[in-house]
Amino acid sequence: MTRVWKWNRPVTVREVLEDLQRERSIAYTTVMTVLDNLHQKGWVRREAEGRAYRYEAVSTRAAYAAALMNDAWSQSDNAAAALVAFFGMMSDEQRQALRDAVRIVEGTREGRTEGITGRTAEGAAGEPAREPAEHPAEPAGEGAREDAGEDTGERPAEHPGDDVPEVTGEVPDTPEAAPAGETAGTAESGDRNPGSAQGGHGR
Question: Which UniProt keywords apply (predicted)?
Answer without folding.
Answer: DNA-binding, Transcription, Transcription regulation
